[in-house]
């Protein structure tokens, strides 16, 4: 009966982790599964609780920092960015007028929805723009002819 309790607790924590994506609750789920193993081997309830606490604490102390370190953006780690991170700073051509609400650009042959990084600016078809940030499937763009730091938007300083 004790093993069933720990398994149910582990599953509940794992499912909760799916909704939080913090990589915190799953560590306690691992502890619950370890306690379930101890219960299946006939360990007393007190030992099961100790195993749950120790395995959970070790998971949080050892595994989570490693996962967080590998989850940092490539820019922070000095690695070559890839995927969406690689698009930030890229030059694009406006295919459909871009303003604060809508637009379409072409980045390295790919079509992207776009919005102006500065809500007061708009860009006409054929203009060159620079991708400042990507949010979901939308690129936030700025004028491409940035030459002085004073013209650079706050996010890129």
From TrEMBL:
Subcellular location: Membrane
Domain NfeD-like C-terminal: 84-142
InterPro entries: Membrane_assoc_protease, NA-bd_OB-fold, NfeD-like_C
Membrane topology: Multi-pass membrane protein
Signal peptide positions (record): none
Cross-referenced SUPFAM superfamilies: NfeD domain-like
UniProt xrefs under Gene3D superfamilies: Nucleic acid-binding proteins (2.40.50.140)
Main location: membrane
Transmembrane segments: 7-35, 41-63
Keywords, alphabetical: Membrane, Transmembrane, Transmembrane helix
Protein name: NfeD family protein
């Amino acid at each position: 009966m004790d093993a069933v309790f720990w398994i149910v607790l582990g599953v509940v924590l794992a499912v909760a982790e799916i909704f939080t994506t913090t990589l915190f609750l799953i560590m306690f789920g691992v502890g619950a599964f370890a306690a379930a193993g101890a219960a299946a081997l006939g360990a007393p309830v007190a030992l099961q609780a100790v195993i749950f606490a120790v395995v959970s604490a070790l998971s949080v102390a050892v595994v989570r920092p490693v996962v967080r370190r590998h989850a940092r953006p490539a820019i922070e780690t000095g690695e070559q960015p890839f995927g969406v991170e690689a698009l930030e700073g890229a030059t694009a051509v406006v295919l459909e007028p871009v303003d604060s609400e809508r637009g379409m650009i072409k980045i390295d042959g790919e079509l992207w929805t776009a919005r102006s990084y500065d809500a007061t600016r708009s860009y006409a078809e054929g203009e060159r723009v620079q991708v400042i940030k990507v949010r979901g499937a939308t690129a936030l763009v700025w004028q491409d002819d940035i030459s002085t730091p004073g013209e650079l938007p706050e996010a890129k300083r």
